[in-house]
From TrEMBL:
Identification of the protein by name: Uncharacterized protein
Domain of life of the organism encoding this protein: Bacteria
Amino acid sequence: MLGGIISLREENEALRRTHQKLLKLLKEKPADDSVG
């Protein structure tokens, strides 16, 4: 069970990083929020 929780945390970190990258891209070139 703990292993699953840890992997979920790591997945969350990866998602957060990709989210930050997407935010930077959106700031560079204006676009609507309808992404996914």
